[in-house]
Amino acid sequence: MEDAVETLTRGNVAEVKVVLASVALALAVYQLVMIAVGYGKLRVPFLATPPAFQAHRAVGDMIALLLLCTGVMCVSYYGFEDDKLVHAVAGSALLGVLALKISVVRRDFGLGRFLPVLGITVFTLLAVTWATSAGAFLA
Amino acid sequence: MSRQLLGSLIAAVLIVIIAIAVVTASFGPTSAAEQEVREERLEERLDAEEERREAAEERREERRER
User: Fold this and answer.
1) Which residues of chain A have pLDDT under 50?
2) Does the pLDDT at position B8 exceed 70?
3) What is the DSSP string of A122-139?
4) Number of domains in chain A
5) Which of A45, A50, A52, A112 is the most core-located residue (most Cβ within 10 A)?
6) How many beta carbons lie within 10 A of that of residue A130, not counting itself?
7) How far A107 CA lies from chain B's nearest CA (Å)?
8) pLDDT higher for B30 or A114?
9) Beta-carbon neighbour count of residue A85 at 10 Å?
10) Do residue B36 and residue A19 have CB atoms under 8 angstroms apart?
11) Residue A86 Cα, gap to closest chain B Cα (Å)
12) B32 has a pLDDT exceeding 70
């Protein structure tokens, strides 16, 4: 797996990981705007509630795929390092909460009212995960 | 409505493009691929220099033999 990651990224594992995580974070900020329009917290004349929700769902699927790829790359290449404990914990929690949120979106399980909290948690964990790795790399 | 959805998705694609451009620009010429290309070029230059030196030496030796 380690060799596959290195071959796929042509030796630029850290750089590819930073790009993927940064794209995910930028899209996550956009997601906050989309869902604010969806819930009517933010009103813009050129975007109604239903297309905002649909765009939020479509972009969310894209972010989930990006985060899964980044997570698999990170764990298979770097593993869990002691000096990156906050990153490892935040990243693992991010994938866990994201999986829970997707399950609630698809199946509800009577937890639909917690979606905003789950969404904000996903965003916060993504920001922490990015800041403790990609942010430090770019600084 | 579909036009609004399409517009939202196009905006998302633009965000992806801008994010990739900004992040890759901040890497500068330190990426492994670029370093590899530089090393290859340097190696090629050194090889060419060595070949030139060897050819010059051979020519000098030929002249001496004559």
Assistant:
1) none
2) yes
3) HHHHHHHHHIIIIIHHH-
4) 1
5) A52
6) 25
7) 24
8) A114
9) 11
10) no
11) 23
12) no
Band (B16; pLDDT cuts 50, 70, 90)? very high
With a cut of 80, say whether residue B31 has pLDDT above it. no
> How would you classify residue A42: left for phi > 0, otherwise alpha for psi between -120 and 50, otherwise beta?
beta
Distance of residue B47 Cα from the nearest chain A Cα, in angstroms: 25
| CA–CA gap between residue A12 and residue A15 (Å, rounded) | 5
**In terms of Cα–Cα distance, which of A75, A98, A108, A81 is closest to A5?**
A75
B4 → closest Cβ in A26, A46, A138: A46
Q: Tell me which residue range forms the domain holding A52.
A: 2-138
> Is B14 in the A-facing interface, judged by CB distances under 8 Å?
no
* CA gap B34, A129 in Å, rounded: 27
Tell how far CA A115 is from the center of its chain.
15
- All residues of chain A having their beta carbon less than 8 Å from the beta carbon of residue B24 are 15, 19
Kindly list the residues from chain B whose CB atom is less than 8 angstroms away from the CB atom of residue A27: 12, 15-16, 19
